[in-house]
Amino acid sequence: MKTSVFVGVSVDGFMARRDGALDFLPPGGGEPHGYEEFMATVDALLIGRKTYETVLGFDAWPYGSKPVFVLSTRALQPPPANAVVEHLRGAPKDIAATLANRSLEHIYVDGGITIQGFLREGLIQRLVVTRVPVLIGTGIPLFGALPHDIALRHVATRHYASGLVQSEYEVLSQTSAGDADA
C-alpha cells in the first residue's frame, strides 16, 4: 500500500493557523496545481479528527464517495449524508496494517498530527508540498520533531502563475542523527 501527502503550506511552513483556520490558502484551492489528478489516484483518505472537523465546515464535502478514515480517540461528529466515513483509532503501524488488509492501494494522509505520526513511523512514501506565497508567522507546522533524519529524493518542483511553488519528494529512509554524520 502506498501512502502520500498532498498539502499546502505557508512559505514559513504552517499548514493551518493555530485555531485550524485555512484562510491564507487560495480560495477554492487556487489555480489548478495537480490536486484533481492526485485525487484520481487515491483509493481512500486518512485524516485526523481536527482536519475532519475543519472539512465539515466547508460548503460541500470535498471527497465525494471516496472512503475517509478518521483517526481519533474521541467520538466524531456525524458525517454529511453523502460521505463515506469510518472512525479508526490506534497506532500508525496498526492503522496502516488495517488499511492494507482492506486491499487499498493508495492512501492520502492529511492532518498535521496524522502526517507527523505516519512520517515518524516510516509510513509515508511520497510528499507533495505546495508553498503558498504568504508568511503567517505562527500556526500548525507541517513537520514536527523527528527522532531520526528522513532522507528524501527530490522528484520535481513546479511553479504556477499565482506564485504557488510545489515540490514533490519520494521518502527514502530514516537515519539516526549519528548515521547522518557518518
UniProtKB/TrEMBL annotation:
Q: Name one GO molecular function term.
A: 5-amino-6-(5-phosphoribosylamino)uracil reductase activity
The Gene Ontology biological process annotation of the record reads: riboflavin biosynthetic process
Instruction: Specify the domain of life of the species encoding this protein.
Output: Bacteria
Every Bacterial bifunctional deaminase-reductase C-terminal domain range: 5-165
Quote the InterPro entries the UniProt record gives: DHFR-like_dom_sf, RibDG_C, Riboflavin_Biosynth_HTPR
Gene3D superfamilies the record matches: Dihydrofolate Reductase, subunit A (3.40.430.10)
Q: Spell out the PANTHER family in the cross-references.
A: 2,5-DIAMINO-6-RIBOSYLAMINO-4(3H)-PYRIMIDINONE 5'-PHOSPHATE REDUCTASE, DIHYDROFOLATE REDUCTASE FAMILY PROTEIN (AFU_ORTHOLOGUE AFUA_8G06820)
Write down what this protein is called.
Dihydrofolate reductase
Q: What is the lineage of its organism?
A: Bacteria, Pseudomonadati, Pseudomonadota, Gammaproteobacteria, Lysobacterales
